[in-house]
Amino acid sequence: MTETRSAILSLAGLLLLLLGSALGVIYSKYQSRLLFVEIQQQERELDRYEVEWGQLQLELTTLAEENRVEQIARDKLKLVMPERDKIIYLKP
């Protein structure tokens, strides 16, 4: 009788360990899926930032063109190009 009871307790213990292990696998799979979803969101956000960075680089290039800067200096700031003989060159 005690052998049967001992076997039943051992079997119940093994079943509990198996159930705990199965729940652990389920939980870790769930966590990995959550992380995968987060990685996907971060990659989409990175793509958006890269597109925005490219647009800003293009805008910067456009705004920094020499003729545009010169035009704004003339029109808005009323600056004029000095005569050649009034230009002083400094050597470093």
Automatic annotation (TrEMBL):
<keyword id="KW-0131">Cell cycle</keyword>
<keyword id="KW-0812">Transmembrane</keyword>
<keyword id="KW-0175">Coiled coil</keyword>
<keyword id="KW-0132">Cell division</keyword>
<feature type="coiled-coil region">
    <location>
        <begin position="32"/>
        <end position="59"/>
    </location>
</feature>
<protein>
    <recommendedName>
        <fullName>Cell division protein FtsL</fullName>
    </recommendedName>
</protein>
<dbReference type="GO" id="GO:0043093">
    <property type="term" value="P:FtsZ-dependent cytokinesis"/>
</dbReference>
<keyword id="KW-0997">Cell inner membrane</keyword>
<keyword id="KW-1133">Transmembrane helix</keyword>
<keyword id="KW-0472">Membrane</keyword>
<dbReference type="GO" id="GO:0032153">
    <property type="term" value="C:cell division site"/>
</dbReference>
<dbReference type="GO" id="GO:0005886">
    <property type="term" value="C:plasma membrane"/>
</dbReference>
<dbReference type="InterPro" id="IPR011922">
    <property type="entry name" value="Cell_div_FtsL"/>
</dbReference>
<dbReference type="Pfam" id="PF04999">
    <property type="entry name" value="FtsL"/>
</dbReference>
<comment type="function">
    <text>Essential cell division protein. May link together the upstream cell division proteins, which are predominantly cytoplasmic, with the downstream cell division proteins, which are predominantly periplasmic.</text>
</comment>
<comment type="subunit">
    <text>Part of a complex composed of FtsB, FtsL and FtsQ.</text>
</comment>
<comment type="similarity">
    <text>Belongs to the FtsL family.</text>
</comment>
<keyword id="KW-1003">Cell membrane</keyword>
